[in-house]
Amino acid sequence: MYGLPPNNWSTVLIRPKTKPRRPYMSYRNILAIDLAKEVFQICKTDHNGKVIYNKAVSRRKLQEILRKEKASLAAMESCATSHYWCRYAMECGHAVKPMHARTVKAFLTKQKTDKNDALAISIAALQPHVPSTRILNTEEQALQSVDRMRELAVSQRRSCSNQIRSLLNEFGITIAKGIAHLKAKLPDILEDAENGLPGMFRQSIAMAFEMLKTHIEYIADLDKKLEAEVKNNETCQKLMMLEGVGPLSAIGLTIRLGQPAIFKNGRAASASIGLTPKQHSSGGKEVIGHIAKYSADKRLRSTLYQGALAVIARVDKREARTQKEVWLKGIIQRRGKKVAAIALANKNVRTTYALIKNNTNYKATAIAA
Known about the structure:
This protein is an alpha/beta fold. It has three domains: about 5-125, YqgF/RNase H-like domain (Nucleotidyltransferase, domain 5); about 140-230; about 235-275 and about 295-360, no CATH class. The protein is about 55% helix and about 10% strand. Strands 3-2-1-4-5 form a five-stranded mixed sheet, sandwiched between helices. It has a two-stranded antiparallel sheet with strand order 6-7. Helix 5 (about 140-170) packs antiparallel against helix 7 and helix 11 (about 300-315) packs across helix 13 (about 335-360). The longest helix is centred in the middle third of the chain and has 34 residues, at about 200-230.
């Protein structure tokens, strides 16, 4: 039931690059690891699913087990610290298979315990239809981390500015939308002794304004770092030739699709981001719905969507210059701008998959004069 034919292993395993490849069936055991901060659950099974041991270990003991065990398939859920442990297992000579936690949950039986979780991971790892998620190297993980830090800083800047604006509005003082208006007007408001603001409140708003300026400077510094990284990244420069793909979208696509081998085709890559319609079919009747709300990379999808809307705003006001713009204007006329934006984002992801996989450059096809 749990066995895996050897010719299927190549589609799901990620092998260490630092050591010679081993024959598929030489990975006789599965080391299923339920990740945690300090206490880890590791379940060792053979390739037929027979449990050899299932025990809780410390971080140091887990490292020792990975170093001493013969080359095996190390499986785990793709969650916090999974990139580190996958890279560590690969350095120890193991093949690795990180999997989406939602996929592993389908193999969980009985109650949810660490032992049962580890056993579910080992069962899921043996299924040929369960795909692996991507493992980021240290450079990619650092780039993603800086991008996440920027995302948090932008959220904090937005919250701080909205609070200042709304609190002042309670005292009858309104400021136009936008950070620029807030930065320009707030110093004069704080210096105006006749606007009726209590002294304690005035001081608190001044402190909040200093915090806001700190967020603004921090974001600007992160933007410079990301822009410098994008300029030095050949893949990002290649992707920015696509319509509606800017620096942030290029970073997200590079991280998400940097290993095209984990996707069957461009549609699978687009589906992983949430840009393809959901399907609910039965009895030979196909029902195609809307794009997924929850099973998606929402942040990357939002960035691609906003970039596509910016392109549509320009294209809709002038004549088409390329074959893609002709296609895009046709969708706008038939389905509207929002559907056209999703269609363009979907096409950009599929094009990205092809560019990275085939190591080619993008060039729009101009309309013949």
